[in-house]
Amino acid sequence: MIYITRKETFCAAHKLSRPDWSLEKNLEIFGKCSNPNWHGHNYTLWITVKGEVNPETGFVANLAEVSNIIRVNVLDKVDHRNLDLDVDFMKGKLSSTEVLAMEIWKQLQQPINALGCSLHCVKLQETEKNSVEYFG
Amino acid sequence: MIYITRKETFCAAHKLSRPDWSLEKNLEIFGKCSNPNWHGHNYTLWITVKGEVNPETGFVANLAEVSNIIRVNVLDKVDHRNLDLDVDFMKGKLSSTEVLAMEIWKQLQQPINALGCSLHCVKLQETEKNSVEYFG
Amino acid sequence: MIYITRKETFCAAHKLSRPDWSLEKNLEIFGKCSNPNWHGHNYTLWITVKGEVNPETGFVANLAEVSNIIRVNVLDKVDHRNLDLDVDFMKGKLSSTEVLAMEIWKQLQQPINALGCSLHCVKLQETEKNSVEYFG
Amino acid sequence: MIYITRKETFCAAHKLSRPDWSLEKNLEIFGKCSNPNWHGHNYTLWITVKGEVNPETGFVANLAEVSNIIRVNVLDKVDHRNLDLDVDFMKGKLSSTEVLAMEIWKQLQQPINALGCSLHCVKLQETEKNSVEYFG
Amino acid sequence: MIYITRKETFCAAHKLSRPDWSLEKNLEIFGKCSNPNWHGHNYTLWITVKGEVNPETGFVANLAEVSNIIRVNVLDKVDHRNLDLDVDFMKGKLSSTEVLAMEIWKQLQQPINALGCSLHCVKLQETEKNSVEYFG
Amino acid sequence: MIYITRKETFCAAHKLSRPDWSLEKNLEIFGKCSNPNWHGHNYTLWITVKGEVNPETGFVANLAEVSNIIRVNVLDKVDHRNLDLDVDFMKGKLSSTEVLAMEIWKQLQQPINALGCSLHCVKLQETEKNSVEYFG
After folding, report:
1. What's the pLDDT score for residue A20?
2. Which of B4, B56, B57 sits opposite F132 (nearest CB)?
3. What Rg value do the Cα atoms of chain B yield, rounded?
4. Predicted ipTM of the assembly
5. CB contacts, 8 Å: E130 with chain F
């Protein structure tokens, strides 16, 4: 068993704000992340896949295929977008780093498994100081 | 003459889009940066100040004071904000990295000079791949 | 279960030296880290907390609260200090990266648990080449 | 139990290419990594060792000794070399990051264990976007 | 006048070795960089362009066009290649970082100028410790 | 004319404190950097040398020789030392980043010039947020 990781980046706008809460309640709980006119981040995403090494290629999985799966299922939907308004898989959900990582897992699990290996970890970094890891 | 640099970061939403152009024209010129619902970045800002070393302190300028000037004049206005909607000094301007760096220069030049040294460079990085330097 | 990580930094002086050993023995075992007049580092600290996502906030824990706990219990005690002379929780202990990480764990475990989640890992980097992870 | 990690770097040439396949087949499977005249990388290697802290030294293992073991058994053989032509432990093997990480594990396991601790992980990064972890 | 910088990366094999010198002389002058079977690097390239800001777009130059010029004139020729065997503009030249940076300048100067701005600096990093800047 | 840069690192203890000032005055001017029991940093040093490319080697200067000059004249004196107590060229001087960069310039200028090129810049970074550049 060996683990391979692909790093990707994307830029997106979002805010942390519940429509069923007042501006004041949102500000109290979510701080400056609740700014009504949005803010944004350069997100960094590490996708870790585990499996056996194929003796013919020396690969667990072809990283070009892994990268393509991440692009089609995640990056094309979130890069240079508004996470709260533009992304089908985030509709009606709070765009915290935790929730976003868990939803990215759901997007990737089936197509990664179809490569003959399995999704091990989604790591998502919002700023240099804050990141999240989800193992399913 | 010696040069000191302070690095700061902020997170903001923006888009590149002229209201006098159609969606199609904006998309042609600004690409995915024209997304109507905004996107965002973790910006990195390096402020370089030059001057003589004060023999009493060994400092060109006290970096705590430089940092405070950057915070009051720039960071408090742009961090976790929308550059196009929330920032007084960007009103009516295109929020390209070039224009933003030049406007940050205007915010900082006078208060930095009041410390007895002079503003040398505003360097602003939008993504790991793209940055701008402005020397006034 | 999801894992969130907060990165913090601090600067401190220390040395590796046992008072019950001669200078020569300390130099033999600890090398240049035994310099009697101290040396120092920019330490980087990653605190990882695990728990369930609160559906109301989308958070495992509010990172502002996690950051505040790290500041009060660790950073305020070690930043711009001498680990061997100034830090209550390091008194009488060798300030190796291993021992420092384990003592930081003891400072954080109870207040992190009081947030309703649990401390998972203390990662401490002394230089770009050397780091330690402790899981309790 | 505590985990310590040493980071090292090396520069090497290699290609991904099976001599029993045609140029076209190699290009189809390995893409531009199959360039017949080689290409190369700045590899980054993180070696993680686990064990109990020695109360006399505060160390799991002396990182100077760990570093020396990595240098003698790995770096001296691969740095500024061609992984496919010059490295004894890679002879006849595909120099994928996966295979290289597994072979580095074999070089290090016995001498690390002889220090009284145990090898936990070999992490090998080929480019900023691609890395591998092997736990034996 | 404002300066914009685009960062790109490429991976290549090379060696430092003069065919008119003996192996011993090459080893004496170029050290381990003279290994006959090649070695390689992840190169990082920063291209800085200077000009006036176009008031219609807020840009000195469209970075998508700058990036495309770098790709066609440099990256497509050097990435995953052998600098000494595969690259037309390096034929018969020593592939030191200095010479490579100067030759990259020659490839880019005319197409960058055709954008209405001018090439200011080619910065090329061979390893984290070694880099070169050329201003024409 | 081309510019080459060598990056080196060192770890040292220091404090900012004038013996002719009270503890209170030192604290007022130098803040937490005045802690009487010292603190410390991982310093990063970039030495930039300029000159013509030697057509025989493709080098402005052999970086192995540049690195050796930095080691003998600076690193061996400051690494794992106390800048205020252990370093001959800092005796009686305030160890601000500005002063340290200027004194490092004095150590390097003559031996670098003896290589047939000239010292262009000493850049010294104390923390990720603070750095200094000195051009003589």
Report:
1. 97
2. B4
3. 17
4. 0.96
5. 4-7, 63
Q: Would the CB atoms of B16 and E64 count as touching at under 8 Å?
A: no
B99/E63 touch (CB, cutoff 8 Å), yes or no: no
Q: For D43, phi and psi rounded to 5 degrees?
A: -80, 145
Backbone angles phi, psi at E22, to 5 degrees: -70, 165
Chain C: closest CA distance from residue A64 (Å)? 28
CA distance C66 to chain D (A): 23
Instruction: Determine the Cα–Cα distance for residues C60 and A102; give it in Å rounded to an integer.
Output: 12
Q: Choose the catalytic residue: F11, F28, F80, F98.
A: F80
In this prediction, residue C131 carries a pLDDT of 98
**pLDDT of amino acid B83:** 98
> Alpha helix locations (H) across chain E?
23-30, 63-70, 76-78, 97-113
Distance CA B45, CA E81 (A): 35
Domain ranges of chain B: 2-134
DSSP state for residue F114 in the 8-state scheme: T
Q: What is the mean pLDDT of residues B46-57?
A: 98
What one-letter code names the amino acid at D32?
K
Instruction: Work out the percent of chain D whose per-residue pLDDT is above 70.
Output: 100
D39 belongs to the catalytic site: no
CB contact (8 A) between residue B93 and residue E58:
yes
Residue pair E135/F8 in contact by the 8 Å Cβ criterion: no
Work out the mean pLDDT of chain E and round it to a whole number: 97
Mutate which: C33, C120, C132, vs D, most D CBs within 10 A = C132
pLDDT tens per residue, range B6-50: 999 999 999 999 999 999 999 999 999 999 999 999 999 999 999
DSSP state letter for C134: E
The answer to whether A133 is a known catalytic residue is no
Q: What is the per-residue pLDDT for A102?
A: 98
Establish if E32 touches chain D: CB-CB under 8 angstroms.
yes
Residue F110 to residue F74: CA distance in whole angstroms: 13
DSSP structure string for B17-79: --TTS-HHHHHHHHGGGG-TT-EEEEEEEEEEEEEPPBTTTTBSS-HHHHHHHHIIIIIHHHT
Cβ neighbours of residue D124 closer than 8 Å, sequence gap 6 or more: D43, D44, D45, D46, D97, D100, D101, D104, D131, D132, D134
3-state SS assignment for residue C75:
helix
Tokens of A10: 């994307």
Of B9, B38, B86, the CB nearest to A40: B38
pLDDT tens-place string over residues A37-96: 999 999 999 999 999 999 999 999 999 999 999 999 999 999 999 999 999 999 999 999
Quickly tell me which residue has 């929308």 as its tokens. Answer: B82
Is D9 within 8 Å of D52 (Cβ atoms)?
no
E75-125 tens-digit pLDDT:
999 999 999 999 999 999 999 999 999 999 999 999 999 999 999 999 999
Give the residue on F whose Cα is nearest the Cα of C13.
F39
- Within a 10 A sphere around the Cβ of A114, how many other Cβ atoms? 10
CATH code linked to domain E2-134: 3.30.479.10
F121 and B CB contact within 8 Å: no
Mean pLDDT by 10-residue block, N- to C-terminus, for chain F (136 residues)? Answer: 98 97 97 98 98 97 96 98 98 98 98 96 98 98
Orientation angle between helical segments F63-70 and F97-113, nearest 10 degrees: 130
Question: pLDDT-based confidence at C60, cuts 50/70/90?
Answer: very high
Query: Do E131 and F5 lie within an 8 Å CB cutoff?
Result: yes
Candidates A16, A94, A132; nearest CB to C3: A132
**Residue range D19-36, pLDDT digits in tens:** 999 999 999 999 999 999
The residues pairing with A50 across neighbouring beta strands, listed in sequence order, are A3, A118
Asked if the C-beta of A7 comes within 8 angstroms of chain B's C-beta atoms, the answer is: no
E82 touches chain F (CB under 8 A): no
Q: Please state whether the predicted TM-score (pTM) of the whole model is above 0.90.
A: yes
